[in-house]
Design goal:
MetalloPept_cat_dom_sf; 6 helices; single chain; Collagenase (Catalytic Domain); alpha/beta; Matrixin; globular; 9 strands
Length: 269
């Protein structure tokens, strides 16, 4: 065998051994592509977990929504995103969501799906229903859980009472929000692991009203507005006002804000 042939075989063996060793240590091709850039990690359930790498093509799943209205809106995370702007959900991957049915009023699941569809249509984010879960609704939930696989947990929509959650006391009918978490590489943050907690007793009372179903859907939509990054506003003509005064649909400022939070950049894989 010629000397050059021996060198080629040795080189190929070295590459194969490196690839095998990298696979055994959990190194992905994304890690190889970002060689020299440390993979970000978080603490989850008492363990250090590397940030899951975004999968799929870096292109929007739904068209970006055109901003066609003017009005009041505010953001929960005004900077820290990949473009230096707001922290938002990645529009190039589905936003999964699950429902924790304990305490949910009978027949209310369709109303939840309708509210999610409204958020999807106004943000241009693709929401994907992943079924029901027995995970308790909590803002302290681990961001990565074995039950959902090697990825961030989906948005969780659940129901509690004031006795179970004192934050639902008084006129508070729901709570909502997401976590701002870095991508696998770099400093840019994205929204992850949203949570909506609805007051089961309040929702049941609202449903007894003549316009109850529409009002209850608006409550869910309002909390999902927080999940995608909208904050409260002072304008009573907007659904994102802290106290909904029987509004059942988005106001002009809501629509402008929802289009903005849905116009984030794709997370690199």
């Amino acid at each position: 065998m010629r000397q050059a042939g021996r060198y080629l075989i040795v080189a190929l063996l070295a590459v194969a051994l490196f690839a095998a060793g990298a696979w055994w240590r959990g190194v992905t091709w994304s890690d190889v592509r970002h060689w020299g850039t440390p993979r970000n990690a978080i603490e989850s359930e008492g363990q250090t977990v590397r940030i899951p790498v975004a999968e799929g093509a870096e292109e929007r799943l739904l068209p970006e929504v055109e901003v066609a209205t003017v009005g009041a809106y505010d953001l929960l995370f005004r900077d820290g995103g990949p473009d230096g702007g707001p922290v938002r959900y990645d529009p190039c991957r589905p936003v999964g969501y699950v429902i924790a049915p304990d305490g949910m009023p009978e027949g209310f699941e369709d109303t939840v799906h309708e509210a999610v569809a409204s958020i999807s249509a106004t943000t241009g984010l693709l929401f994907a229903y992943e079924g029901r879960t027995d995970e308790p609704a909590s803002f302290d939930r681990p961001l990565v859980q074995e039950r959902y696989g090697d990825r961030f947990v989906p948005v969780l929509i659940g129901f509690q009472t004031e006795a179970e959650n004192p934050d639902l006391a008084g006129t508070v009918t729901g709570l909502g929000g997401s976590s701002a978490v870095p991508g696998a590489y770099g400093d840019a943050k994205y929204l992850r692991a949203g949570v909506v907690i609805l007051d089961a007793e309040d929702v049941a009372r609202i449903l007894e009203d003549g316009d109850g179903e529409d009002l209850a859907r608006a409550v869910v939509a309002h909390e999902l507005g927080h999940v995608v990054g909208l904050a409260h506003v002072g304008d009573t003509e907007e659904l994102m006002h802290e106290s909904n005064l029987r509004l059942i649909d988005w106001g002009p400022g809501d629509l402008a804000g929802l289009a903005l939070v849905g116009a984030g950049e794709c997370e690199p894989g």
